[in-house]
Amino acid sequence: MAGRPAYRITRNDLAAARRYIENAMERGDISKAGGYMAFRRADTPELLQTWCDDYLQADTFKKLKGGVLAARKRSRDYNTPRAKVSVDLDHYAHLRLASLAEELGKTLSDTVVLLEEVYWKARDAGVLK
C-alpha cells in the first residue's frame, strides 16, 4: 500500500509558508546565513519548494507543513480565505490606492500585496535602499 504523497507548497499556501519561514528566521529557528537572498527571490510555490528542499532539514520542513496546515484551518474558521481587518488611511492615500487598484483591476488588498512584492524585488535588485 502506497503512503500519502509528500507535501508540496501550493499557490494557496505560498503566503502562509513565507510568513512561517520569515517568523522562524526572526526567532532564529531557521538561519538566514547563505539562503536569505534566495528566499527573498522565491516568490512562486515552485521556487519556494526548491528553496525548502535546498535549505531546510526534514524536521523543519515538517514543522513548516504543520504551520501551513494550521493557517489553512484558521482561515476556514473565519469562513474566508483571509481574515478581514480594518485600517485607517487618509483620504488622499485611499484615493491613490483605489485609483491604482482600478487601473490594475485588483482589489485594494491585492494591490497592497502587489506593491509590497514590487518593493522587495526593487530592494533586492538594489534599486531601493
Secondary structure blueprint with pairings:
Blueprint: H1 14-27, H2 36-41, H3 45-55, H4 58-77, H5 91-104, H6 108-124
Helix pairs in contact: 1-4, 5-6
Description:
The chain has helices at 14-27, 36-41, 45-55, 58-77, 91-104, 108-124. The protein has 129 residues and is mainly alpha-helical. It folds into two domains: 1-83, no CATH class; 85-129. α1 crosses α4 (58-77) and α5 packs across α6 (108-124). The protein is globular, with a radius of gyration of 17 Å.
Summarize the structure.
Helix content is 64%, strand content 0%.
Q: What is the total tally of β strands?
A: 0
Oligomeric state of the chains present here? single chain
- Strand residue percentage: under 5%
Number of domains: 2
SSE order in H/E notation?
Answer: HHHHHH
Bin the helical content.
55-70%
Name the average pLDDT.
86
Radius of gyration: 17 Å
Ends distance: 54 Å
Helix/strand/pairing category = mainly alpha
User: What gross morphology would you assign?
Assistant: globular
Low-confidence stretches: none
Number of alpha- plus pi-helical segments: 6
Biggest pleated sheet: none
